[in-house]
Amino acid sequence: MPEFEQTLGAGTLLAIAASAVALLLLLIIRLRMHAFIALVLVSLLTALVAGIPAGVLVSLLTGSFGTTLGSVALLVGLGAMLGRLLESSGGAAVLADALIARFGERHAVFALGVASLIFGFPIFFDAGLIVMLPVVFTVARRLEGGLLKFGIPVAAAFAVMHVFVPPHPGPVAAAELLHADVGRLVLLGILVAIPAWLLAGGVFGRWISQRIVLPVPDILAAGPKSPQPLHPPGAGTVAALLLLPPLLIFINTGLDFARVQGWVGGTEAWFQPARLIGTTPVALLVSVLVACCVLGLRRGGSFSQVERVLESALGPVCSIILITGAGGMFGGVLRATGIGAALTGALANLGLPVLVAGFLLATALRVAQGSATVALITAAGLIQPAVEAQGYRGADLAAVVLAMAAGSAMLSHVNDSGFWLVGRFFGMDVRTTLKTWTVMMTLIGLTGFALAGLIFWLF
């Protein structure tokens, strides 16, 4: 969208943002308006009230919508196909049974969470969660306690890895801006991520699952649960298929990490083709093609049968894709109005310690525009002069990055595409998503900030 001069003051912009969120919640929760329509309507009204020129308003809305869909639609669509193949072949049930037999019913939640932490190291949050959902749903069907007992620890595991640990884009970009050592940031990020997961995924997940018992949705099964196939694949085959996307993605993230560390220059002839294989959409596409062969054609299925299975995966997730895109539209409007800049400007002159200022700036940006990655990178750019003036190095500098990462996790709400992705896949309404996902992410942020402060003062 072309630049325009925002003449409204910070107080007015903050009031507009608060009113927009309140109106959106009113329309969805009280008036039962469909979330997609409500998000588009409130995005349009917010842009008009904030003074965005009418001539560029439609391009802003469609551009923000399309940008979000560009990153989400492929991942959700391909991830749903992979999940449907696992579900229909009986592979998800086989792996679920193997996990329960290996770790026992009492430790099934912990086993799923640890597996998600490992998968979450190289793979982005949304892709990792979607790939794991068939197993989560199947385990939740096998055992008592409802979906949240198993879903919250898994979602928290992918979230903490995405927020705190390189090679995910937010911490890597912030480390580059502030010249922090990425290797040290990986180690300290893991030290922060694991306790944050234990609190938000383990303690909170257990507590909230006893108060809100959700049934397991049939969204990846394309209808009610079908009977177990007579010849399902082995647990090892299913585990290998689940490991394939993160392994391929690790090629991409690993090469980025090597470039940041200076191990490779990034201009070699093989560098970009190798990175292409590890991009998330390509990695998921390769995984779907392999699953079509291993779970379909090699097990006696015809091409038409495999095609029907893939087709059945797309219909149920179309609503999720559209609502997630509309959530990105709302966040894009809030970014374009200058609300985030107003928040950061109000915080910049408070004279706070750099660690606290970075956390609050990232939190303000997260609340204002929704994206954790954008909040972290933008906060790092704003705090860079103060960091250079203080001369932070080593663990101190890594702690500042982790504090901003913690802020970027805070208070995820209706302008965050992840809010809608998790809420819709888990079959939750907006009120329940606020009580579960939003609280979980805020606990991750608060725990991460406390641990970052501890690292800052101790080391």
Detailed description of the structure:
- With 459 residues, the chain is mainly alpha-helical.
- The chain contains 19 helices and no strands.
- The protein has one domain.
- The longest helix has 36 residues.
Keywords:
459 residues; mainly alpha; 19 helices; 0% strand
Distance between the termini: 44 Å
SSE sequence, one letter per element: HHHHHHHHHHHHHHHHHHH
Share of helix, binned: over 70%
Total helices: the number is 19
Q: How many beta-strand elements?
A: 0
Class computed from helices, strands and strand pairing: mainly alpha
What is the rounded Rg? 22 Å
Largest sheet: none
Which helices and strands, and how do they pair?
Elements (H helix, E strand, L loop, with lengths): L9 H21 L4 H15 L4 H36 L1 H13 L4 H12 L5 H18 L4 H18 L4 H10 L3 H30 L23 H27 L9 H8 L1 H17 L6 H34 L2 H10 L5 H16 L2 H19 L3 H16 L7 H9 L4 H29 L1
Briefly say what this structure is.
This protein is an all-alpha fold and 459 residues long. It contains 19 helices and no strands.
